[in-house]
Amino acid sequence: MEEAARAGIDPSRIAIDPGIGFGKDVKGNLNLIRRLREFRSFGRPILIGASRKGFIGKILGGEPNERLTGSLVAATAAIMNGANIVRAHDVLETVKMARMADAIRSPNYKG
Fold first, then answer.
1. Given 13, 37, 53, 105, the catalytic residue
2. Is it the case that residue 110 has pLDDT exceeding 90?
3. Which is the catalytic residue, given 13, 58, 87, 96?
4. For the residues 28-48, what does the mean pLDDT come to?
5. Is 53 a catalytic residue?
6. SS3 for 48?
7. Distance between the two ends of the chain, CA-based, in angstroms?
């Protein structure tokens, strides 16, 4: 974040992406999702991109286009643990999941 600021990037345009799948094994990716709240200390939105990632395939099996269920569960867990932005391949299904997760997470949901 400091380097981006030195490069003239407005801090309000920065989101934290912990990099699911990049140089991490299955346990590392799961731990990252469990501990997402710790990134809130940066004061920026948290972005998660677990959609169709290899760690889902290692747990559930299947090719990338067969990982919808695992992708939705991982994204739901990420939202419940503090993610603000979800990158997804299966947009319609992910939007519906995110709306439901947000409703569950929000004590002030007025539906």
1. 53
2. no
3. 87
4. 97
5. yes
6. strand
7. 37
